[in-house]
Automatic annotation (TrEMBL):
Gene Ontology cellular component annotations, sorted alphabetically: COPI vesicle coat; Golgi membrane
Keyword Transmembrane among record annotations: no
Alphabetical list of SUPFAM superfamilies matching this protein: Second domain of Mu2 adaptin subunit (ap50) of ap2 adaptor (SSF49447), SNARE-like (SSF64356)
Assembly behavior: Oligomeric complex that consists of at least the alpha, beta, beta', gamma, delta, epsilon and zeta subunits.
Protein name stated in the entry: Coatomer subunit delta
Region feature (Disordered): 150-179
Domain MHD: 216-461
Amino acid sequence: MYTYNTTGNHGGANPYQVPEYSYSLDEEGIGKTAFELIFAFDEIISLGHKENVTVAQVKQYCEMESHEEKLHKMVLQSKINDTKDVMKRKASEIDKSKIEKGRGDQGGFGLMSLQSMGSGRIEDSFSDMSISGGGGGGFGSGSGFGLSTDVESFSSKSKGRPPSSATAPPKGLGMQLGKSQKTNQFLESLKAEGEVILEDVQPKAGQSKSAAPPPTDPITLTVEEKLNVTLKRDGGVSNFDVQGTLSLQILNQEDAQIQVQIETGGNPGVLFKAHPNMNKELFSNENILGLKDPNRPFPTGQGGDAAGVGLLKWRMQSTDESVVPLTINCWPSVSGHETYVSIEYEASSLFDLRNVVIAVPLPALREAPSVRQIDGEWRYDSRNSVLEWSILLIDNSNRSGSMEFVVPPADSSVFFPISVQFLATNTFSDLKVVNVIPLKGGAPPKYSQRTQLITENYQVV
């Protein structure tokens, strides 16, 4: 066996075996492993002198990972993933434009036939609010002293995939969607018959908020409650705070001299506070909101605040876990070289929740996690390393649900805090407008009420 040492002799002390790197000692074999041999000799000789190292140490030094190389590969993979996301969005936009074109060419029967079907519960207008005239109890959105709306917008599915698997893992790992499979089979059968199908949409966390539609009724009253909740990962409530507002928007000056009669659900934990310009005695005795000076009109949309004026505020705080609309349990467990994460939600029967998005932080991954089971849809945000679990509607048919996914070994604290977003069309105060009283006499003016419960900051820590 041919050996080499730094003294220039063949054999001798501390020999370094060429066959460790090249098993063929001819010119072709040495040429193929030239770089490996050079690196090995570089570890042996320093400034013309022999280093006191063994063969095992030389191999170890040559095989050590480079932090810079590893970082470069991670940055390169991140750019590749971002490029793939852009390609998917472009493909989705092209698909959408083709569908819009097909709608005009084929009359739209295939489009409309499934517009209210999708996942089985998507209504024709699965929007941020419903509006009722007169004394009706429609529900919608509004802000404290203005009329802004916080509603998650929707994104269309990726190109060429059925709605139920639009976010399926790239390596073919299955995703269980429970109740939507029969609907998906029906969709596929319609596609096979040549029908043009409008693809499902799903809520996506972090998208821009949509604005409230402009009011069309002479008077619009908006009830909005914002939730700030912090839940403990081991159970219990760290913080639960509800802040609500009732605001008024009047379009025409002739309807500005009014009083608003309300009723509440009698929740003892809700504390109400009227605007300083309101008649406190009238509100306390008769639940009527009116100005201290009855001859003074409310501001209108043309002359006053275009977003409306605040009439009433309220607040509710609690540490009782039973009042929480949605609880999340997360169970990470390491098994071998993988971490199995099981997440379960349980929803209160008091609220039907819409556009639910549960965002779970993940360790830095080179590819999407393997989702083994899920009730709903999922999406992996590679840029922020977050797994988003989306449920369009939680009602009496699915008050509980679960998701299980697998990632490489990671500490359990990596998966917290979990952020939650949703909206509902009923509130903790259960405040309703029962009548609008004109102070000038005559028939009561037409009005509408919008009511909405939204999450401002909802986390499991």
